[in-house]
Amino acid sequence: MPFPAARGFRVGGLLLAAVLAGPALPFPAIACTLWAAAGEAVEGGGALVAKNRDFRPDHRQEIALLRPRQGWAALVLRAVGGAAPGIKAGINERGLVILSATAGEVPAELRRSSGAEPGLLRRLLSGCGGIDEVLREIERFRRPVFYLLGDRRGVAAIEVAPDGGLAVERLASGTLHHANHYRWLMAEASLRPPSVSSRAREARIAGWLATEPGPFTAEDFLRWSRDRSNGPDRSLWRTGRNASAVRTLATWIARIPPRGDPELIVRIADPGEPERFCRIPVGESLWRTAGSAMPAGSLLCPPHLPPDADSASTRLTAPVDRPDRSLPAGGHPRGAGL
Questions:
Q1: What is the homologous superfamily of the domain 10-312 according to CATH?
Q2: What's the chain's average pLDDT?
Q3: How much is the pLDDT for 190?
Q4: Are strands 74-80 and 86-92 parallel, antiparallel or unpaired?
Q5: Is residue 138 a contact partner of residue 166, using CB atoms and an 8 Å limit?
Q6: Using omega within 30 degrees of 0 as the cis cutoff, is the peptide bond preceding 215 cis?
Q7: How far apart are CA 235 and CA 102, in angstroms?
Q8: pLDDT confidence of 254, banded at 50, 70, 90?
């Protein structure tokens, strides 16, 4: 497909930039780990897209329902309060997933001054029905951030450099992964080297994707997301070195089948609160929920459910009062109920 030529980008094996090199330094990473599988790499086909969200424990999180007047409804993971509030992950009624991760080599002040478009994830989730439509909007990606996308037909990763350079890796079948350092794009020499944590987490998830037998399931991704075996900062589920240190606060796993209702697996670990763990049928939840904000302890993600117990999963199984409509494979009619 055609891509904008105004800035450098990479598609598949083509890279129009130099690769960042340099030693890894042990500065703390405010970070996340992203990974995905698609096509023949997923049991039953479609896509699996996952994020372990790492940040300082200075805020709470909620699952929020976005119902714009025009466009697609979506479920999102939203940080409330703290140093970086806003949407951190989302899936819309067409089965498009958008996840983001910090570019840890870029200092915070440079990220803040990048001229990013406010509310970009919200607008992409409401306005785009799949990866192709997101990529047609790629000139809107200005902030140095890493993105992982998924839909019923594949997955994609996007890197955005501080100078506006872009890299896109798109797969219909196979696996992708990303931590918090540039893998494909050039970054300015004045930026920080990759953190030890980012390198270690990328190596762990890359190893599992390369060596564990596939095709993969959501349960495989959930098992990896719980990894604590490499210490407080180098495991996928980071526990932090002290009470105020960066640690993993949430897991977001989306299973997007070729047809039918996508499913979310969400684990939320807000500071000072019991962990929440739930399984959410996306289409059912979009029709069932009347409100717009669903705190972690709500119907969709009830409290006091230990994430490692089989009984912890909750599904929306009660009858859903919704119109008798003919739904497309991707979800509900555009604008219905919005």
A1: Penicillin V Acylase; Chain A (3.60.60.10)
A2: 80
A3: 60
A4: antiparallel
A5: yes
A6: yes
A7: 17
A8: very high
